[in-house]
Each structure stands twice: as C-alpha cells, then as structure tokens.
Amino acid sequence: MFDYLIVGAGFAGSVLAERLASQLGKKILIIDTRSHIGGNAYDCFNDDGILIHKYGPHIFHTNSRDVFEYLSQFTQWRSYEHRVLASVDGQLVPIPINLDTVNRLYGLSLTSFQLEDFFASVAEPKEYIRTSEDVVVNKVGRELYEKFFRNYTRKQWDMDPSELDKSVTSRVATRTNRDNRYFTDTYQAMPLHGFTRMFEKMLSHPNIKVMLNADYREILDVIPFGKMIYTGPIDLFFNYRYGKLPYRSLEFKHETINTPVHQPVAVVNYPNEHLYTRVTEFKYLTGQEHPKTGIVYEFPRAQGDPYYPVPRSENAELYKKYKALADATPEVHFVGRLATYKYYNMDQVVAQALMVYKKIVEAGDDTSEKANRELARV
Ligand SMILES: Cc1cc2nc3c(=O)[nH]c(=O)nc-3n(C[C@H](O)[C@H](O)[C@H](O)COP(=O)(O)OP(=O)(O)OC[C@H]3O[C@@H](n4cnc5c(N)ncnc54)[C@H](O)[C@@H]3O)c2cc1C
C-alpha cells in the first residue's frame, strides 16, 4: 500500500513526493494526466533538437535562499537575467518602462530626475486604486498606459483593465533608471540541464512510483493508499459542486526557424498589433548552442488548459466556497496553483509545498522515528 497518493507531478506534487520519500521514508504514488512530469514547467527537445518549454517560457527567480538551496540539490544552474522588449510604435523598447523606454519612444534625452518629473506631469493621480487601469494611469499616465498595457491586458484577459483587479498590473514595475532586467530577485538562474532533468532527479527515489497518462479518479478504488496530496483543480475535486472556477488559457504555437538568432532578447511583447501577446526565443533561456532556433507564440484563449485564475471578486467568493469544502476534508492536503486557485510563480509553489511538508511533520501524523527526528530539526 502507498502511504500517499500525490495528484499532479508539477512543482507542488514533486517537492512533496521528494520530501516525504527521502525524509520520512514514505511510499509515494505520484500520478499525472499528462504524459510527462514537471507540470507546466516541463521542457523537452523538439524534433530539431532544440530545448523548448512546452507550456511557454518559465524563468526561475526567487528571493528565497531556502527555495534556491532546496532546488540546488537536484540541479546545477546557469546564471540568467531575463530581459523583455515591447514592440511599440515600430520600435523595440524595454519593459518594464524605464529611462531608455521613454527616451527612445519620444526621442528625448531625459535624466532619471527629469523622468520622475515627466511621470509626475503625465500621471493621473487616483485617490483609490481599485483596477488594473488605475494602477498604471496613476503611475505613468494615460498615453503610456494605452501604448503598453491597455491592449495587452485586453488580449490576455479579454477584459478591459478597468474591469480587472489591481493585482494584475501591480506586478509590473516602472523604473526611472536604466535597469532593464525584468526581475530584480536575488537569485535568477535556470536549471543547467533544464527543468525536466531537475524533476527526474527529484522523483528518482526508490520509494516514489510515477504514473502518467492517468487521472487520479481512475485509480482511486483500485490502488490502496493512506493519505492524499492534491495539486489539481480544486473545483474538479469537488465535482464542480458550486460551478466552474474561471481560468484564462493560452494556445502555444511553437516553430523552429532556420537561423541561429531570431530576436534580440528572450521575450518580445506585442501589446498592440498582433493576436499573440508575446514571442519567446528559448535559446536565451537555456543557453543552448544550435544552428537553428526555437520560438513560441502565445495566443490567449477562453478555453483550454487552466493557466491563469481570473482575478475578479466574484471568483474569489466562489473559491472561498471550495476552500471551505477543502478545510472540511483534512485527510487531503490541497497544494499548488490549481488547488488554491491562485497564480503563483514556481518559487512560491516550492515554498508552499515545503511549508505543507513542515506542517505534515509537525502535525505528527507520522510516528516513525525518522519523522520525529525531522520534527526536532524544524
Ligand atoms: C504560460 C505560463 C508561464 C509561466 N511562467 C513562469 C515563469 O516565468 N516563472 C515562474 O516562476 N512561474 C511561471 N509560471 C507559473 C508556473 O507554471 C507555476 O508556478 C507552477 O507550474 C505551478 O506548479 P503546480 O505544481 O502548482 O501546478 P502544475 O505545474 O500545473 O502541476 C499540476 C499538475 O496536476 C496535474 N493534474 C491536474 N488534474 C489532475 C488529475 N485529475 N489527475 C492527475 N493529474 C492531474 C496536471 O496535469 C499538472 O501537471 C508560468 C505559468 C504559465 C501558465
């Protein structure tokens, strides 16, 4: 009998499988409907031998030393600082908006101090910041909002930023210096041999069995197990009792191009003139050398795999109802982005999974000697 059935072999499921097997000696069955481990972070070589991210670009960045050190047990890293350009008014300019963005867009040569004054002169101060539009207009004014954010957000969410919670655009910084890095986290690096290789190492413990191409519901009555860790969609777990939690999806169009380099940085955003939102060239992320190059276009979709929870108050209310059901099901741990209906970066999911592991140990639902030793350590 397995001690734990873990549903989903993404970051949430794999971290817990690894901890429970390696630290507590638990017997684990980890199951995924997909044909591979790694969840959305899965990468693979395409037919031309180029390492690509099947579900869109995944860039690792974190401020958590614990998370970075934990993952470092399973991979070496290559330093990588992410940079993004936006195609606006026929130019490719840095995003997040910085000093170079404004100077190049308007043919100016402002200093950082002058840019602060520029922003102050164009900003439309809002007393209450409620929506995604409020966030941006309050900082950089309506014109830059229209050029960089409005249409991108409409494409991505099929909603005007004025209808979307402020959290969507709050993530995007604005700078008055020339820092053109997309992220400013302490640790910015990519797994040297890719994410999938890292997941393989995490799951290579003899106590962990991996079952792919299978929905957990197919095996519930067939394979005995003790407890469950669930990282799939929370509404599915409860048979959509209160209705479906809304998600935004993406369609990925992968291509190989017969040239070593396609674009000047890993990601180019297209806020305005195309149906896709961005184009990623993987070799920047992976460091792979190859005479050809692999790119992916992202087309936002209403239907498809659940990627982004739609941040509206009515959806948060609906999630609360499912959360109450989850709280009343203590034999199952709900972990990860789908089970908690929240957009998380990879490092946040790793941190969440490590926290759940710690709680499992602290709850003392394991009486083995090893668990007690672990408990004494945390
Ligand atoms: C387009 C895109 C780009 C992203 N880019 C970044 C980035 O650059 N940096 C970053 O830090 N984060 C990024 N993320 C977020 C990142 O993908 C997540 O943080 C991470 O994958 C979450 O891991 P998870 O284990 O919670 O979920 P997932 O990776 O989704 O794993 C859940 C797994 O559960 C499986 N499952 C679901 N239902 C069932 C079932 N009934 N039975 C069996 N298995 C089931 C699914 O098949 C899936 O494999 C991005 C996300 C998207 C969508």
Automatic annotation (TrEMBL):
Membrane spanning stretches: none
Superkingdom of the source species: Bacteria
Entry keyword set: FAD, Flavoprotein, Isomerase
Pfam families from the UniProt entry: GLF, NAD_binding_8
Single GO cellular component term: cytosol
Sequence ranges assigned to domain UDP-galactopyranose mutase C-terminal in this UniProt record: 147-343
GO molecular function, one term: UDP-galactopyranose mutase activity
Protein name: UDP-galactopyranose mutase
Organism of this sequence: Scytonema millei VB511283
